[in-house]
């Protein structure tokens, strides 16, 4: 007998390609005990963190590729980014006006 599962999935879509991030998560029984629920939520938390790490790695690679492409073609269509300022304001809404 197979164990039923669902997929935790995130998709990255851009003009030059797409990327899927997926983890199979065992579905709890239809009438789960407290322990079943705790295990399920723990797995969701674990796989969500793993997926976030995978996406961060992927996006960092994409940014590096874009930067190298811009450097090799001599085009600088993206404005200069103040990395220190971006790091300082990470996760915060900043009024750019």
From TrEMBL:
GO terms for cellular component: chromosome, telomeric region; nucleus. The keyword Transcription regulation applies. Its main location: nucleus. Keywords: Activator, Chromosome, Nucleus, Telomere, Transcription, Transcription regulation, tRNA processing. It holds the Pfam family Gon7. Residues 1-35, 58-97 are annotated as: Disordered. It is found in: Chromosome, Telomere; Nucleus. Residues 1-25 have a biased composition (Polar residues). Residues 84-97 have a biased composition (Acidic residues). The keyword tRNA processing applies. One of its GO terms (biological process) is tRNA processing. Component of the EKC/KEOPS complex composed of at least BUD32, CGI121, GON7, KAE1 and PCC1; the whole complex dimerizes. Belongs to the GON7 family. Component of the EKC/KEOPS complex that is required for the formation of a threonylcarbamoyl group on adenosine at position 37 (t(6)A37) in tRNAs that read codons beginning with adenine. The complex is probably involved in the transfer of the threonylcarbamoyl moiety of threonylcarbamoyl-AMP (TC-AMP) to the N6 group of A37. GON7 likely plays a supporting role to the catalytic subunit KAE1 in the complex. The EKC/KEOPS complex also promotes both telomere uncapping and telomere elongation. The complex is required for efficient recruitment of transcriptional coactivators. This is EKC/KEOPS complex subunit GON7. It comes from Carpinus fangiana. The lineage of its organism: Eukaryota, Viridiplantae, Streptophyta, Embryophyta, Tracheophyta.
């Amino acid at each position: 007998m197979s164990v039923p599962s669902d997929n935790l999935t995130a998709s990255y879509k851009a003009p030059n390609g797409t990327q899927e991030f997926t983890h199979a998560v065992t579905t709890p029984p239809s009438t789960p005990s407290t322990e079943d629920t705790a295990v399920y939520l723990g797995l969701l938390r674990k796989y969500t963190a793993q997926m976030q790490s995978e996406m961060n790695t992927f996006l960092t690679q994409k940014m590096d590729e874009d930067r190298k492409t811009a450097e090799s073609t001599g085009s600088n269509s993206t404005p200069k980014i103040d990395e220190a300022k971006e790091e300082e304001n990470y996760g915060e809404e900043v009024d750019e006006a």
